[in-house]
Amino acid sequence: MPPERRGETSEFFGGAALTVSTVALIDYGSGNLRSAAKAFERAAADAGLARTVAVTDRADEIAGADAIVLPGVGAFADCYAGLTAVPGVVEALEDAVIRRGVPFLGICVGMQLMAERGSEFGADRGLGWIAGTVQALDPADPALKVPHMGWNDLAIARPDHPVFAGASAGTHGYFVHSYQFVAARADDVLATVDYGGPVTAAVGRDNLVGCQFHPEKSQAAGLALLTSFLRWRP
Description:
Blueprint: E1 22-26, H1 33-46, E2 52-56, H2 59-63, E3 67-70, H3 76-85, H4 89-99, E4 104-107, H5 109-112, E5 117-118, E6 124-125, E7 132-136, E8 148-153, E9 155-156, E10 172-177, E11 179-183, E12 189-194, E13 198-205, E14 208-211, H6 219-231
Parallel strand pairs: 1-2, 1-3, 3-4, 4-14, 5-7
Antiparallel strand pairs: 5-6, 7-11, 8-10, 9-12, 12-13, 13-14
């Protein structure tokens, strides 16, 4: 493995110097896996990091990964059902992420699944990793349409977090969603956006991070976030 470039920082996001070597993107039939995998590969290459990015539905590969990513597109209940239908995957996630502290990133519905439950078409359980619920967007301004779609500026609530420490004013992400994560604890909210009121853009605690926006579609800022995640050692 080539040596790391010591002391690198990103224009948008900060990150620790330590890095990972294998990233598992979980394939459970719901997610923009190809674009997410390519974004991780580009982020690693641009930063000079030797990384293996594996798209997988195998519990053993998830168990052996140094970092885990859960994408997700669609309805909360459908995504949770798809995830639990893949043999051994939820058990492997619980062991790696919750028991062993492997760095984890949830993207869009992948972030929402970290909640205790969702409210889309009734109450549905989630992974329960971060206290809170997933609720329908309800902008105060009736002129704002749902879904929330397009670019929006991030307001960083936790600038001390290693994945967001270098975020500059006006950093923006690309959003496509009709539901939002309503966290029970303010400290678990890493970033928000304004869409007829504050909307959760990122959550996190311990070795867990989730972003409602799509970093793989968020150009330079998104790639910088992925680089920071690759370097993160919680």
